[in-house]
Every structure is written in C-alpha cells, then in structure tokens.
Amino acid sequence: MTNALTNPNTTGSADDAASRYVPEHDKTGGEHDYGQVLDDLSAASVHRNFDPYVDIDWDAPHMAITENDPRWVLSYEVDPIGRHPWYQQLPESKQIEIGMWRQANVAKVGLQFESVLIRGLMQYSFKLPNGAREFRYTTHESKEECNHTLMFQEFVNRVGMDVPGAKVGYRLISPFVPLVSTMFPIVFFFGVLGGEEPIDHIQKDFLRTRARLHPTMAAVMQLHVAEEARHISFAHHFIREQVPQRNRFQRFLLSLMLPLTMRTLCSAIVVPPRSFVKEFDVPREVMKDIFWRSAESKRFLRNVFGDVRMLADQSGLMNPVSRLLWRALGISGRPSRFRSEPTYTAA
After folding, report:
1. What is the Cα–Cα distance from 186 to 110, expressed in whole angstroms?
2. Region labeled Disordered — which residues (predicted)?
3. For 173, what's the count of Cα atoms within 13 Å in the CB-facing half-sphere?
4. How many CB atoms lie within 10 A of CB 344?
5. What is the CA 199 to chain-centroid distance, rounded?
6. Which residues of 156-187 are buried (b: 16+ CB within 10 A; e: fewer)?
7. Terminal C-alpha separation, the chain
8. What CA–CA distance (Å, rounded) separates 43 from 264?
9. Measured distance CA(182)–CA(193) in Å, rounded
10. Which site among 91, 107, 194, 265 is 20 to 30 Å from 332 CA-CA?
C-alpha cells in the first residue's frame, strides 16, 4: 500500500486535504458563523478521516524497524536533544538508540495525553443539551483520537523499547483532568492546546525540513498532523466563541491561565522523564541546557506558541499583566500571522 501516509515525499498532501474543510476568515475580516464551523468540521471528520491499520502499511518491507538505522538519529534542525553538542558528539550507534527511545517515548506521551483528552471530551459532551452542535464534533474527534492512541501504541510496540511516556506527576493527576471539561470548559480546551500545539509544531517542523525520517515515523506524523488540524481548529474557535461571553474578571483570570497552561503542559509533553537521564547517563547540566537554558532551547520554546499568542490576541486574552506573564514564562514573542505559520517567520 502506497499513499500520502506511507510516502515521506508527500508530506503536505494529507494535511492540505484535511485543512480544506476548515473555514477561514473571509475577505471582509469577519468570521464564519460558529455553528457553521462546527458543521464543517464534523463533515470533514466524515469525509476525510484515516484509520492507522488501513492507511499505514505497517508490514511493508520499507517500513521495517531495524537496529543501527541512521534515520533514527535526532535532527539537529528540529529536536532540542538532537541539536545539543553532547548528543552530536556521541557515537552514531548511541545516537540511534537515543533517537529510537526519544521518538517512541514522545509517541507514548501523545497516547497518554490523548487518552486524557478523550475522557475529557466524553465528559464534556455528556452534559451538552439536545441539539448542541458541539456534541457531534467532539464525538467525531474522540473517535479520531482513539485511532491515534492505537497508532501511537502500535508504533511504540514496533520500536520495541519499553518507554514510560510522561513524567510520574502527569500520570498521577491524569484521572482528574477530565473533570475540568465540565467545570471549566475553557480551561480544559486551553489544556487541549497545551498538549496538541507542541507535538503538532514539532511534527510539522520535521515534515517541513524533510528531516531524514524513518518511513514509519513519517507515516505516523503525517496522519496525526492531518487530523490534528481539525482538532486544533475546533479548540481555537471554541475559545474565541466562549471567552467574550465571560465577565471582565473571568476574562482576566483566563488571560493568566492560558500562558500558565501552555508552559506547564509543554514541559510535560516535550521534556523526557527521569528514566531517560538514567538510561542514557545524561549529565544534569546538559538537561538544563536542553530544557530550557540555552539560547537555542529558549528560541524553540517561544516558537512553539506563536499560534496560541495569535489566539490570545484574537480572544482578548492579552493585556499588560498577561503579557508580563508570557514573558516571565519564556514563551512571549510575536504572534503568528496565520495558523501554522512556519517557524522561520514566526520566531
């Protein structure tokens, strides 16, 4: 089976196809009706969806995962670990081993995050009234996220490394996070973006730079990026719809919660757990440089949230106090001009 998800030379096609269904601002500067956006996103989920066991040919010869494959070496252009001199001076065999562990662990973290997300979406939709358009879309999204968890676990299993995924603290609190979706739904969708934006940003950078990716890794990224375009779009539209309906004090609190949520979840998603340090004997100073002391790592951290800064501006969640908080957390910067603006112009 050869298609856009197994051929790394067609990285843009799946994402472009999915994105065509997402309404954009019209030429007069107004926005499409929120209800129409939900209808369009739901229709896209019906007509443009993927099944990891149909659209990825896991058993094709070129998809085989073998040891000592240099395509597992982490990219110095994209991955925070891959660009550090400590990693670059390691023997290639060790770079490959770390690269396989790193990619498998990121997939495991993605699986764990999306498991929490599915539970939260189901909790949110449970309380929706009859006729609510959000019910249909969030249920479609939950189905797609279930496929993503299957895909991520299949990838982890085939890499063959017993990775833990997220840090212990994140795993311990995860059963309680879905409750936020009914009590504080806007904050819950902040969390959705806090988990999805870093992974989406990194994967798109991998695909844009044409980094040497193993075909299995490329296929997983392409499928995930294509469907996450809808999921992220819904969260953006939901927040822009809901925030103006809150009073001034609530909007002020939300303006502080947004950067705090982004910064906290970015570290939970991107920073590997302690087992990584023990497994590969990573010096403490190296970990501090990578996350987030060096100039390169600080730039990476800022770049991740260009789209969210744009959303904050559009939603009225940027004010003098919140701007100071964005800066204090190391995630301030120019907002993106449009969703998924490439890093080299959004920095």
Report:
1. 21
2. 1-35
3. 8
4. 10
5. 3
6. beebeeebbbbbeebbeeeeebbebbeeebbb
7. 38
8. 33
9. 17
10. 107
| Coil/strand/helix, residue 130 | coil
Q: Based on C-alpha coordinates, what's the Rg of the chain? A: 20
- The DSSP result for 31-77, as a single string, is ---HHHHHHHHHHHHHHS---HHHHS-TTSGGG---TT-GGGSPPTT
Smallest CA-to-CA distance from 99 within 115, 88, 109, 110 is with 88
Alpha helices in the chain (DSSP H): 11-19, 34-47, 52-55, 85-88, 92-126, 133-159, 168-173, 180-183, 185-209, 215-242, 248-270, 274-280, 284-288, 295-304, 306-315, 320-328, 343-346
Give the tokens for residue 260: 């705090």
Greatest Cα pair distance in the chain: 60
Q: What token pair was written down for 180? A: 């936020």
Output the tens digit of pLDDT for each of the chain's 347 residues: 444 444 433 333 333 333 333 333 333 334 458 999 999 999 999 999 899 999 999 999 999 999 899 999 998 888 999 999 999 999 999 999 999 999 999 999 999 999 999 999 999 999 999 999 999 999 999 999 999 999 999 999 999 999 999 888 888 888 888 899 999 999 999 999 999 999 888 888 888 876 688 999 999 999 999 999 999 999 999 999 999 999 999 999 999 999 999 999 999 889 999 999 999 999 999 999 999 999 989 999 999 999 999 999 999 999 999 999 999 999 999 999 888 787 654 44
Specify the amino acid at residue 152.
F
Q: Which two tokens stand for residue 8?
A: 């790394």
Q: Encoding tokens for residue 296?
A: 């390169």
Task: Report the predicted TM-score, pTM, of the whole model to 2 decimal places.
Answer: 0.86
Length in residues, the chain: 347
Close Cβ partners of 132 (under 8 Å, ≥ 6 residues apart): none
- In single-letter form, the type of residue at position 200 comes to D
- How far apart are alpha carbons 121 and 137 in whole angstroms? 10
